[in-house]
Here is the input.
Amino acid sequence: MIFDAANVFVEAVKSGKEDAILDQAFELLINYTNTHFTDEEAYYESIGSSLLATQKVEHEHLLGELREMWYEKRHGSEDAGTDLDHWMERRLVPHIIEEDTRAQKA
Here is the structure.
């Protein structure tokens, strides 16, 4: 689901139409990441993973970054779409693909 939403958003940014969906994109991402991180942390806790504390800190940072971008967008940032696009590409997707995969193997 997150990758589908990210792809729609990336295409909107590339075509210069991100303002039409930007608020929805922020709301969707905040809700999704919060749910994903909560579920993930519950899973790590249920298996007694030693990586739980590290994951919680990383999740707090990621959510903080996302909330900060949304705040800036609501206060007139013209770069919010590009910033969100870069954040998804450089922070969220690598976390899901790399960190979560590594944590599940631990």
Observations:
- The chain has one domain: 2-9+22-105.
- Helices lie at 2-14, 19-46, 52-74, 80-105.
- The CA atoms of residues 5 and 25 lie 8 Å apart.
